[in-house]
Amino acid sequence: MARKNPTKPAASIPPSAVKNKPRNPRKSVSTTAPKGRPQTAKGLGGAAVSEIFRRFEEITPEPKGELEHSNPYTLLVAVVLSAQATDAGVNKATRPLFKIADTPEKMLALGEDTVRDYIKTIGLYRNKAKNVMALSAKLVAEHGGQVPADRDTLETLPGVGRKTANVVMNMAFGHPTMAVDTHVFRVANRIGLSAGKNPLMVEEDLMRCVPKAYGLHAHHWLILHGRYLCKARKPECWRCPIADLCRFTPKTPAP
Q1: What is the pLDDT of residue 21?
Q2: CATH entry, 32-64+178-239, from 3.40.640.10, 1.10.1670.10, 1.20.140.160, 2.60.40.10
């Protein structure tokens, strides 16, 4: 279900949670799948994949998206606005907007010019304002003002692609979808969960290899891991809780 009236960003993976994290003297986890167990696109064994997500869950049991919203509609709008923008930047713009327009009817009543003024600090704001108005009009005209709990239908809305639809299906309606953004794409390929060359290929690999028990939160864990540890330019391998399982080489040494 969607978070209501958030007052601060959701929990991330703080450095203190992983830096110098002690290892339990357990059996080593195989990186090749035993007979009958699935492998990832890079041959990472099913047991290793399960252990990766077990550790993510241990660090952040209930990960959440960092876009502030109060219902499925404001979530949908926030995700549409987040394309090529930071969550922090979107939140700054939508806090005052959502106070007066948290339904498609209210958004339409504001008018495109007013909506554009609220979001003008966000990249591509002119086109995004048009999309927000158009999707709001379609929700009112065809769905009674409600956000449909169906990915294919969501993708028919202006400005809504597969990633946005997956986020809404996951966060608003509790479906174990995989929303592949730049962080998920990078991390999945680095770890060895996928060798996909495009977001859809990565999504399909993740849907196949991630254990069902971790499906609901998997894409949030991967986003947080990519945002705070497995960074694009310099992954912080020296404090990574899954470094012994990850296929990325060479590992970045401690500074």
Answers
A1: 40
A2: 1.10.1670.10
Write down the domain spans for the chain.
32-64+178-239, 72-171
The active-site residue out of 117, 181, 205, 231 is 181
- Closest to 87 measured CA to CA, from 181, 189, 206: 181
Mean pLDDT along residues 89-114: 97
Candidate list 35, 163, 234, 251, residue with the active-site label? 163
| Catalytic site includes residue 231 | no
For residues 100-125, average pLDDT:
97
Predicted confidence (pLDDT) per residue in 36-50, tens digit: 334 565 568 889 999
> Any catalytic annotation for residue 87?
no
Please, which residues have CB within 8 angstroms of residue 131's CB and are 6 or more apart in sequence? 80, 158, 159
Residue 79 has pLDDT above 80, yes or no: yes
CATH of domain 72-171: 1.10.340.30
